[in-house]
Specification:
The complex is a heterodimer of chains A (about 475) and B (about 210). Chain A folds into two domains: about 200 residues, no CATH class; about 160 residues, Jelly Rolls (Sandwich). Chain A contains four helices and 26 strands. Chain A has an eight-stranded antiparallel β-barrel. In chain A, helix 2 packs antiparallel against helix 4. Chain B has about 210 residues and is mainly beta. Chain B folds into two domains: about 40 residues, no CATH class; about 130 residues, no CATH class. The chains are: A mainly beta (about 475), B mainly beta (about 210).
Chain lengths: ~475, ~210
């Protein structure tokens, strides 16, 4: 083409001199900068004026902060090269305590500006947002909706620029104040800065210091983050649902197992007899039952005693005896049942039945030896140590006075034996054990969120109020 | 694309139009601002040397928007208190003309929407909502800008303007609009979308030293 419509010359970084101290001032932003700070004397200069007019007098030497990422450092972030061209610290004051954070201005001559923010080792990669996030509310708290996510308001405060270094594409002033609000949806944060003229939004994504150190090839290692940051992703966030999911699956597996055991168990009734006992009877109270057969596999044997006891107790010494081998399994069962009513209403204690499970009973011919015992029993002279001691103490109110009558207590009772019965104790124990991981994870997740929100404008109220 | 040819009334050099509907161009040799009426070219002023400018876009940069190719054929440079921005005049392969704005490297493509009743500038203040083309817009920024320079071909005569009021309108998505009150009697509405740099797939961009 003959036209001298040639491309503008290749843009170059510019070196100028500070009108205050005469020291060199480098401009890395190819004319985007409006403000540049002299690195020697910390004077704020108007980068858009040809000779760098002084905008604001030099910052106090003692206010000087050293950026962790030196100006001019380049790094690669999501496949784009960025150069650190500006650095500022900003601070908010709350209850007399100053909280200060760092902001690094990143530049790419094609893609524009991004930021890195750092507060006590917590980093965010920040992108300016050109849209206006939609304001909403969660209960009484403000929130914003943006790109399909709900961000909950975390805190709002007056933020003051406390130190600046390098160059900025806008007019910077030390001491300048904006109202800064943060809305969180970990690991994202939407921040708004409100001045009298405008509201600007930006979106930050929580980033590990180690990733920043790697991207910008910084020496040493990133400082360890302190505490929990407002948009720090919870290490438990995705896991709580998962652990409960695993719990649900395991519970289903347990139920299936329990059902299978239930289906496999024969549960045959091998013995069912009715008896009567009276404490005033003379003679030996113990007796042996008829012989009965246990068939099938070696399995448990469930014994149930049903009685007609009311406001009374009975004790049964029992032995399961194998007729062939003479092997005996001795055990005892107490049945006690009290009921009545008092000023609190109706009450009851105990039950008129009791059961016991004898494990691993092989098939064979068996009989029971039974020795009932009640208040006023004549024999044996010495009662089993457990019997009276474990009987509930009669309550003073509503207890029939006849309870004191030593003679004449009697009971009708039935003994039922079932072989190969499905039992579910193990099921409940396993279910309880399975509950431990999800409960543990849930507690840790809640603790993490409590720590996060404790620094917000909405601190969770602790149990003590 | 037709390329009518004429001679610059300022220096006599041949002036080429890349876009048949262009109304104004700048003579690349003597920097005369030339306005076209029928086949005549009238010199209405001269552009001072353009200030150094950091936009990566330049005349003859090409790109893609909505799967349609465009070429950059002109621009208006504005400046205001907080810096400046470029409105690059782009023409698509089907002859449609639009604007690619570069404000501190935030890019947006927009088109003039003619024939709409627009609010007078006194009614436009920050925070106000307006509905255009069934989109709810909120006025986000009011800017008073001045013309700083022109380059290349434009769809209307444009030069020497100061104190122009612009209202930027945004949405909760990437739609945006500009109300242009540079001619108070005939405000203009531009509606478009914010586009990331990668999305424009620009070719023939400017080079920056030590950046590739």
């Amino acid at each position: 083409m003959s036209s001298p419509l040639v491309a503008p010359p290749i843009a170059k970084a510019k070196a100028m001199y500070c009108p205050n101290c005469g020291g060199p001032v480098e401009l890395r932003g190819f004319g985007h900068a409006l403000t540049v700070v002299c690195p020697q004397c910390l004077t704020l200069l108007d980068a858009s004026s040809p000779l760098l007019k002084i905008l604001q007098e030099a910052q106090e030497a003692q206010s000087r902060r050293t950026p962790l990422i030196p100006l001019g450092t380049r790094g690669k972030w999501t496949a784009t090269t960025w150069e650190v061209i500006g650095f500022e610290t900003r601070a908010v004051e709350e209850d007399g305590i100053t909280y200060e954070w760092e902001e690094y201005l990143l530049f790419n001559p094609y893609k524009g500006f991004r930021y890195l923010t750092n507060y006590q080792g917590h980093w965010n990669f920040v992108t300016p947002v050109e849209s206006l996030p939609e304001r909403r509310a969660v209960g009484s708290r403000p929130a914003v909706f943006f790109e399909g996510n709900l961000y909950r308001h975390f805190s709002g405060a007056q933020a003051v620029t406390s130190f600046v270094l390098g160059e900025f594409p806008w007019r910077v002033k030390v001491g300048e104040e904006v109202v800064a609000d943060d809305f969180v949806h970990p690991p994202l944060v939407l921040s708004s800065e409100t001045t009298t003229d405008e509201v600007t939004w930006s979106k930050g994504e929580y980033t590990s210091g180690a990733d920043i150190w790697k991207a910008f090839a910084l020496p040493g290692s990133a400082p360890r983050p302190q505490g929990v940051y407002l948009n720090q992703p919870s290490p438990y966030a995705g896991k709580v649902g998962g652990t409960w999911g695993v719990f649900a699956l395991m519970l289903i597996a347990l139920l299936v197992m329990a059902m299978m055991f239930g289906a496999l168990s024969r549960g045959d009734t091998v013995f069912d007899e009715h008896y009567h006992y009276s404490a005033s009877d003379r003679g030996e109270p113990s007796f042996v039952t008829k012989v009965f057969d246990i068939e099938g596999r070696t399995s448990n044997l469930e014994l149930t005693i049903n009685t007609n006891l009311i406001n009374n107790w009975a004790y049964f010494n029992l032995a399961l005896i194998n007729e062939t081998t003479g092997d005996a399994f001795d055990f005892g069962r107490e049945v006690s049942y009290y009921t009545g009513s008092d000023s609190d209403g109706a009450w009851s204690e105990g039950s008129d039945k009791s059961d016991a499970v004898i494990p691993h009973v092989p098939p064979g011919r068996y009989y029971l030896r039974v020795e009932p015992e009640m208040e006023g029993s004549q024999t044996p002279p010495e009662k089993p140590a457990t019997a009276p001691g474990t009987a509930p103490k009669p309550r003073s109110s509503g207890f029939p006075s006849t309870a004191r009558v030593p003679i004449g207590k009697s009971v009708y009772y039935e003994i039922v034996l079932r072989h190969d019965v499905a039992t579910y104790g193990w099921f409940w124990l396993a279910a309880l054990l399975l509950l431990i991981p999800p409960i543990f994870t849930t507690i840790r997740a809640v603790t993490f969120e409590t720590r996060r929100w404790s620094t917000s404008d909405y601190p969770p109220t602790s149990g003590g109020g | 694309m037709s390329q009518p040819l004429a001679n610059c009334p300022g220096c006599g050099a041949p002036v080429q139009f890349r876009w048949s509907s262009a109304v104004q161009t700048v003579c690349p040799f003597c920097h005369s601002i030339l306005v076209r009426s029928d086949l005549d070219l009238k010199k209405v002023g001269t552009v001072a040397d353009l200030p150094p400018d950091p936009s990566p876009i330049q005349l003859l940069t090409s790109g893609t928007y909505n799967n349609k190719k465009f070429d950059v054929i002109g621009r208006i440079i504005y400046e205001y208190e907080q810096g400046g921005w470029n409105e690059w005049h782009i023409v698509f392969s089907d002859g449609v003309s639009g604007w690619l704005s570069d404000a501190q490297l935030q890019y947006a493509v927009s088109f003039l929407v003619p024939g709409m009743a627009l609010p007078p500038e006194e009614q436009v203040t920050r925070g106000k909502h307006f509905n255009f083309s069934n989109i709810d817009f909120e006025v986000s920024t009011m800017t008073i800008a001045a013309y700083k320079g022109v380059e290349g071909e434009l769809p209307f005569p444009f030069y020497g303007k100061t104190n122009m009021l612009f209202a930027d309108l945004r949405t909760n998505g990437n739609n945006f609009a500009t109300l242009d009150y540079s001619d108070k009697a005939a405000p203009m509405l531009f509606i478009g979308k914010a586009v990331p740099f990668e999305g424009l797939q620009l070719q023939n961009v400017r080079q920056f030293e030590e950046w590739s």
